[in-house]
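---------- Forwarded message ----------

FYI, see the 82_t:CDS:1 record below. Original note from H. follows.
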Amino acid sequence: MSSSFTFYFRDAFKRRPLFLYFRGSVFPRVLVPVVIFAVYSAVFVFFASLGLAPLLHVSLVPILTIVTGLLVSLRANSSYDRWWEGRKLWSSLTANIRSFSRVLWYSIEREADGDDVDDVTDVMNLLVAFAFAIKHHLRGEDGYQYSDLTDRLPRGYLAVIENRRNKRVDKERRGRRDTNRFDNLPLEILTLLFNYSSMFKQHGKLDPGIFNHLSALTHSMTEQLSSFERILTAPIPFAFMIHLRQMIVLYCVSLPPQLYTQTGWYCIPITAIAAFTFFGVDAIGKEIENPFGYDANDLPVDKFCNDLLSELGVFESKELNPQEWKKKNS
């Protein structure tokens, strides 16, 4: 007990305090408004010291602080709920992909011929491609020509996509709009997963009960895709964002006239600290309301996808199949 406490005590002094971290913080984003309001406060104090600036009663500070604080708190909570929901969705998606791959691989591979093994491998690659496709889809990166996608899509499907792209180019050259355009790659991959499962069932390679289970997993992944899109396409109402920013500005503008009588020149750092606090929380909310991008505080989506890629590779190694152990020992 004492040794663990000593280790924790020593480690606490080795680590840099969080308030000294700048990487991952929103300090660079709020530096400009903080400087602006600090300069504004200094100018106001200068004129107030000459008796040339209007002063307000300090009783307004608590009222404005409560109202502005509630709005900022609502903004932060709404954004964090979206961030946390995105994390839960990725966890559920990972569980479904793991279950789908495990059930399919160990239910078919034992009695499958060479062609079916290739088809199962295509499905395993499609499961990984589905995760990568969602990542690009949520980041607004359309198409399939990415290093983490191209090698995991079946050749036949790539030919279909290329043929579709050529038809679009022909229509655009003729000045016609392509009304059948369809760029939701994750949804198309889900369709491929279902069609592969149906094909295995029709060929007698997949038990009907297992097929129903895989169909349920496909349906669950479809719901998760829709939930991802809901987070992406339903931002916080713009009117709320405008009003919040206006309230923060008005609050910071009203501080020097209210605080000068009691604090004098100290209202300059007080105003700067208030601006840093409220603009900082607002900046954090803006950064995490879409948790799938490239910001420092967004979800590590690339890591989630790469972890899935590594995990699914274990199935193909046959290290976890008891039948392979018996073959080696016989």
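H. also flagged this: The chain has a mean pLDDT of 85.
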